[in-house]
Amino acid sequence: MNDLIGFFDSGVGGVSVLHEARRQLPNENFLFYGDNLNAPYGPRPLEEIRRLSAAGLGYLMDRGVKAIVIACNTATAAYAEIVRGQHPELPIVGMEPALKPAHFARHGGAVIVLATAATLGLSKFERLMSLYGDDVIPVAGHGLVELVEAGKARGEEARERLGALLSPYRDRQVDAVVLGCTHYPFLRQGIQELFPQAQLFDGREGTAARLKYLLDEKGLRSDDTPGTIELQSSSGAGAVALMRSLMKSLDE
Questions:
Q1: Are residues 209 and 84 in the same domain?
Q2: pLDDT tens-digit map of 185-229
Q3: Which of 186, 201, 216 is the last residue of a domain?
Q4: Same domain, yes or no, for 85 and 210?
Q5: Quick check: is 72 catalytic?
Q6: Which of 36, 43, 49, 110 has the most Cβ atoms closer than 10 angstroms to its Cβ?
Q7: Is 238 exposed, middle or buried, given 0-12, 13-18 or 19+ CB atoms closer than 10 A?
Q8: Same domain as 193, residue 119
Q9: Rounded CA gap, 230 and 47, in Å?
Q10: Domain of residue 85, CATH code
């Protein structure tokens, strides 16, 4: 049996989820594929997102992976239910904005959900809002994915962009900020500087825990040897080097 677990994202952001999965499952072998050539997915039409997601997931399936993580909120919202219906035998874990834990962290203030325009506009997020949408401020993170993809997550340009998007809400009591895109954990420092009293939430830990649960449930867990990580990108070696750098930054 192939021991690879496949990870897919529209770009480099999903390595934030891979990093957490490696922490929880150190003996697994991971294959990450980022479609950097077509990033970002967020501004694209729904059918195009689905077509690109199908191609990326097809790459992983061609490698015979035993499970898949769609490490992209946009691709999950657009395509996860479709691919699960096509491959019911394959454990497929998706992402969603961590609005539920942010909701329960409120103490009278607002929750900002920072996500791509596509994630905020699809029915998956609407369902979350119907359950946990009290005093929620959705903010489309225009331009943020592009900065992370360019290796500028910690630069002044990123801080300026975050300020332009989020400063209008600094005069409000903001109790939590949801990082609703897997690229956004790499912008965590700049976001926390804008809202120092707010808790920041993302879906990495829960996604990795769900993967672990499904592997155990289906008897697919690897426990024998230290695992490996293989990084691949539709745009070549430069993107792979950035993936490695971003993963290393999460250990700092």
A1: yes
A2: 999 999 999 999 999 999 999 999 999 999 999 999 998 788 999
A3: 201
A4: yes
A5: yes
A6: 49
A7: exposed
A8: yes
A9: 29
A10: 3.40.50.1860
Number of domains in the chain: 2
In a structure prediction context, what are the per-residue pLDDT tens digits for the chain, which is 252 residues long?
469 999 999 999 999 999 999 999 999 999 999 999 999 999 999 999 999 999 999 999 999 999 999 999 999 999 999 999 999 999 999 999 999 999 999 999 999 999 999 999 999 999 999 999 999 999 999 999 999 999 999 999 999 999 999 999 999 999 999 999 999 999 999 999 999 999 999 999 999 999 999 999 999 999 878 899 999 999 999 999 999 999 999 998
Task: Using alpha carbons, list the distances in angstroms from residue 240 to 50, 94, 137, 191, 231.
Answer: 23, 22, 34, 25, 6
Catalytic residue among 15, 65, 68, 72: 72
57 and 33 in a single domain? The answer is: yes
Find tokens 């657009």 and name the residue. Answer: 78
Closest CA to 32 of 10, 2, 48: 10
CA neighbor of 200 nearest in space, from 101, 121, 126: 101
Q: Which of 77, 181, 208, 242 is catalytic?
A: 181
- List the domain range (segments joined by +) for residue 230: 4-94+204-249
Burial (CB count <10 Å: 0-12, 13-18, 19+), residue 31: buried
